[in-house]
Amino acid sequence: MTILRTTAQITEILDQLACRIKGAYAEPPRLIGLHTGGAWIAHQLASRLNWAEPAYLDVSLYRDDFSTSGLKRSGDTQGMPPALDGDHVLLVDDVLFTGRTIRAAINVLFDYGRPGQIDLAVVFDRGGRELPISPTFVGEELGDLGAKRCKLTGPAPLTLVDPET
Amino acid sequence: MPGPAELQLNRDGNLRHLLTTEGLSRELITSLLDTADGFRSAQGQPVKKVPLLRGKTVVNLFFENSTRTRTTFDIAAHRLSADVVTLDIRTSSASKGETLFDTLKNLEAMQADLFVVRHSAGGAPFFIADRVTPHIAVVNAGDGTHAHPTQALLDLMTIRQHKGDPNNLSVAIVGDLRHSRVARSLIHGLRAMQCPDIRAIAPGTLLPNDLADLGVRTFHRIEEGLSGVDVIVLLRLQKERMIAGLLPSEREFFKLYGMTEDRLRLAKSDAIVMHPGPINRGVEIANEVADGPQAVILNQVTNGIAVRMAVMAMTISTQQADALCRL
After folding, report:
1. pTM
2. E strands along B114-159, which residues?
3. What is the pLDDT of residue B303?
4. Which of B129, B164, B267, B275 can bridge B17 by disulfide, Cβ–Cβ 3.0-4.6 Å?
C-alpha cells in the first residue's frame, strides 16, 4: 500500500475546497455525500462550512456494473428529504473516475422528484471519464492515472492510498 | 450426488439457488439479512423501484396454490425492475400430462433468469435446480412439508429487527410442527444463527420425531413451554389435520394451545408474537393478541418483500459472476 496523499495534505485540500464552495453560494445548497468516501467528505465539509448535517446516499442499487461486479452495498441512505423538487443539490464524492457512480447518483436523485440544479464537488479527479460528467468543484487534479487504483481510507484519519502497491 | 444444501452454493460459498436454510452459514444468512435491511429502507423512498434487475426475467412457477407468497415474490421482482411472468401450472400443462422436466425445458427456452418454485411435492425445487441450465437461479417458495426458506429468512429478519441477534434468545414454535415446512426451515435458520434455546410446543400427534436431533426441546403443555421466551412463532393449523384424526377440533386446539393474553403473560414482557399467515382467529390466536402491541405479523409481511428482493438479487448476482467465469 502506497500513500498518495497524507492526512495533512487532504486537510489542506478540504480547507481550500470548503472556502471555494462557501464563496460560490449565497444560500447553502442541499449537501448529499455518496457512500462511503463521499459521505466522510460531505460530513467534513459541512462542519467546516457550518452547514446542516448532510444527507448520505447509497447508489449501489442503481449501479450499471451489477452484472459484472454483483451487489456491493456501501451503507444506508440517510437523511434524504421526501422530495427534492426544485432543490439546489451539491453532490459530494471523494474520487472522480469514470463518472458512472455520479450517473447512478443523478438517477437516484431523480427518483426523489425534479431537482432544480445539481452541482458536484470531488476531492480528487483522477481522469479516465467514460461519461460526459464534469465536476463543479475539484480539490486536486491528479491527471490520468490509467489502470492504477486509488482509494480514500477513513473516516478518520483520511488518507489517499494505492492499495495494490 | 450433492443434496440441496451443497447444490445451492457455488465453489466460493456464494448463494446461486435458495432451496433450503439447512446448511446455510451464519455469515451467509447475516449478509442476506443485511442486504434485506437495505432494501427495507429503500421501500420508504418516494420511488420504491430500483433498476438493479432491469432486463432480467423472473418466472413464478406455482404448482400449488398460494396468494400471499406469490404476491410478495411478484412485488419483490417488480421493485427490482425485473420482468415477471407468473405461471399457474395447476391450470396449464401439468393438467395436460406434461412432465415437470418438459415444462422446465420449455421455460428455459423462454430465456428466464430466475425461477420461483412452489410445489406440493417436497424436493421439486431441488429437482429443477439440479437439471436447469447453469445460468438460471432457482428459489424455493415452499415445497411440500420440506422447506420454505424465504419465510424462515423473513422470520429471522423480523426477530433480529425487534429482539436483536438470535444468539441469546429463547424462541418457541407453537402448533403443527409436523406438517410445517415453515417450522422446519426456521429451526435450521435459528440453529445456523446459534440460537441457544429453540422450543416446540404441540400435542404429540403434531410433533415430528427428529426434533431432539435438531436440538429442539419439546413441550406438550403450552404453559411450560412459553415460560420466559423472547419470541413466539405460531403456526397455521390446517383443517385437513382434523379430518386426519390428529386433532379433535379447532375449539379443543384453541383451549389447549391458542395464544391468549393470559398465556402471553408467561413469556417475557417484551416478547413478540409472529405468525406466517393467514391467521385463524380463535384457533391459533385470540383477537386481543393478534391486534395487540406484541404482534409483529404485518411487519413480517413487509419484511417478506425485502428478504425476497435480497434473495433474488444475490442469487442472480452469483449466477452472473459464475457465467463470466465460464466464458
Report:
1. 0.86
2. 114-119, 137-143
3. 96
4. B129
A29-145, which class in CATH? alpha beta
Q: Which amino acid is at B209?
A: N
Q: Find cell 460526459 and name the residue.
A: A132
Tell me whether residue B148 is one of the annotated catalytic residues. Answer: yes
Which amino acid, B281?
R
Q: A68 vs B51: CB contact, 8 Å cut-off?
A: no
pLDDT digits (tens, 9 = 90+) for A63-103: 887 766 667 777 888 899 988 999 999 999 999 999 999 99
- Preceding peptide of B278 cis, ω within 30°: yes
Q: Which domains does chain B have, with CATH numbers?
A: 4-148+303-326 (3.40.50.1370), 149-301 (3.40.50.1370)
- Best of A63, A69, A73 to disrupt the B interface (most B CBs within 10 Å) is A73
Chain B residues lying within 8 Å of A61, measured CB to CB: 38-39, 42, 50-52
Say how far apart CA B289 and CA B275 lie, in whole Å.
Answer: 11
Q: What is the pLDDT confidence band of residue B45, given thresholds at 50, 70 and 90?
A: confident
Q: Give the 3-state DSSP-derived string for B158-208, with helices as H, strands as E and coil as C.
A: HHHHHHCCHHHCEEEEECCCCCCHHHHHHHHHHHHCCCCEEEEECCHHHCC
Instruction: Decide if B60 contacts B74 (C-beta within 8 A).
Output: yes
